[in-house]
Structures are given as structure tokens and as C-alpha cells.
Design brief:
By secondary structure, this protein is an alpha+beta fold. It has two domains: 159 residues, Beta Barrel (OB fold (Dihydrolipoamide Acetyltransferase, E2P)); 57 residues, no CATH class. 31% of the residues lie in helices and 22% in strands. The protein has nine helices and twelve strands. A five-stranded mixed barrel has the order 1-2-3-6-5. Strand 6 and strand 7 form a beta hairpin. The termini are far apart.
């Protein structure tokens, strides 16, 4: 089991990346899975009991005072219902946190526009947000102003992509088999073959793998099923 500690200074960030690269097996059946721990973060925040799993990045929790709140994990994005890997991401989240006592840590924002609490989450020392990204069930997405650990989450995603981890990236090698068709998807040239297999249309952003990113952000993912909207 690999133990990954995240610190704020540059040297430890580099060590963090090396630990991800050489990490071994976690509790998953996938031999490439890693366990992402973050003790200095996980010892802060407030605790609650998980009472329901909504999807891959959203849960319901009950606090000690009896209040039930919906929580959206910060800095990650899992597929929506009906999209490829949506059920797998939900099930992975379920294996991590179902009926567990969870620690919730705020960044800058308290809630999103839907009234959900925005939090980093830990089970013991396990950094749940990073665990889901690092094992290929979510993408790292920066949502300012809550970006304190955006670079760390993006590093985890890059490693998950490189090592073909999880539902999102396990078949990325086969998805990129036709370089001509795939490159048109990334660069913005539309074609009927890409449109037929489009899983997410990008109107405000640009396609990157199976998701949409900001037009000014560089895409580091292999071509996927996202397309221009």
C-alpha cells in the first residue's frame, strides 16, 4: 500500500509526484490502484456520518446535531448519470465512504449555487477526493476560488491517465487507436464519426479526453469522446 503525504513546499510536491509514480497496490482489485493519504489535511475539519451516496462526487451526511447536508467534493468531477463510467464512479465512491465517519474540510467557499456544502473529504488519513481521481474514476477540475489543492489533484489525474487506471483511463489506449479521427476531436474539426460517439458536448470550453476544459487550458489527456458543441 502506497502512502502519499502532501505538503505545501516545492520539494515535497516533487516527492509527492514520485511517490505516485512508484506506488503499489491499494485495496482495489486493480493492481495499479494507489492509496492517497493526506494526514495533515485529514486531521482538520469537522466530522459527520455518511448516510447516502448520490453519485461519484456527491454524498449526504449527518452531523452530530442531527442536521443532514449534501456534500460535493471539491476539485473533482465524475461522469453524470447516463455517461460512460458514471455507475462505476458512484460504486467506487460507495466502497470508500458508505456508512463511514468522514472528515470534511472547507477551502474558501462554503456552498455552491445548489446549496451543497463544498468540501475536501477524508476517511481516516485517506484523502477521498484524491483517491477517486488517482484511481481513474474522476477528473481533476479547478473551480476557483477553491483551488488550494488543484495542482495535487491534477498530478494525480496525470498519473492515473499514464498508468491507465480506473474506468476513465483503462481503455484510453484503445480510444486513441485512430489518430486521425481522434485528433480532429481535440483540435475542433467536426466529423460525423466523432459526433456519433460524442459523450459530452463542449460549448463554452474545449474537448479534452472525455470532458470539457477551459479554452485557455492545455489538454494533457488522450483523445476521448468529448466533442465540440
Amino acid at each position: 500500500m502506497a502512502i502519499i503525504k502532501i505538503h505545501s513546499n516545492t520539494i515535497n510536491i516533487l516527492l509527492f509526484l514520485l511517490l505516485i509514480i512508484f506506488s503499489g497496490c491499494g485495496n482495489s482489485d486493480n493492481e495499479n490502484d494507489i492509496t492517497v493519504t493526506f494526514p495533515s489535511l485529514c486531521e482538520t475539519g469537522s466530522t459527520a456520518q455518511v448516510v447516502d451516496i448520490i453519485d461519484g462526487d456527491t454524498i449526504d451526511v449527518s452531523f452530530n446535531n442531527g442536521t443532514i447536508e449534501r456534500v460535493r467534493y471539491i476539485g473533482i468531477d465524475t461522469p453524470e448519470v447516463g455517461q460512460r463510467c458514471a455507475s462505476e464512479a458512484t460504486n467506487y465512491n460507495k466502497t470508500l465512504v458508505e456508512e463511514q465517519q468522514i472528515t470534511l474540510i472547507q477551502d474558501v467557499s462554503d456552498r455552491d449555487i445548489y446549496g451543497r456544502l463544498l468540501r475536501y473529504a477524508c476517511i481516516g488519513d485517506i484523502f477521498v477526493n484524491g483517491q477517486i481521481v488517482g484511481n481513474g474514476y474522476a477528473e481533476a477540475v479547478a473551480y476557483p476560488p477553491d483551488i488550494q489543492y488543484a495542482d495535487h489533484l491534477e498530478s494525480l489525474e496525470n498519473e492515473a491517465t499514464n498508468f491507465k487506471r480506473g474506468c476513465l483511463w483503462a481503455d484510453s489506449r484503445s480510444n486513441s487507436g485512430n489518430s486521425g479521427e481522434s485528433s480532429s476531436n481535440v483540435n475542433g474539426d467536426s466529423g460525423s464519426s466523432n459526433s456519433d460517439r460524442c459523450c459530452r458536448k463542449c460549448v463554452k470550453g474545449k474537448p479534452c479526453g472525455d470532458s470539457c476544459i477551459s479554452r485557455d487550458k492545455k489538454c494533457h489527456k488522450p483523445p476521448g469522446c468529448a466533442c465540440w458543441g
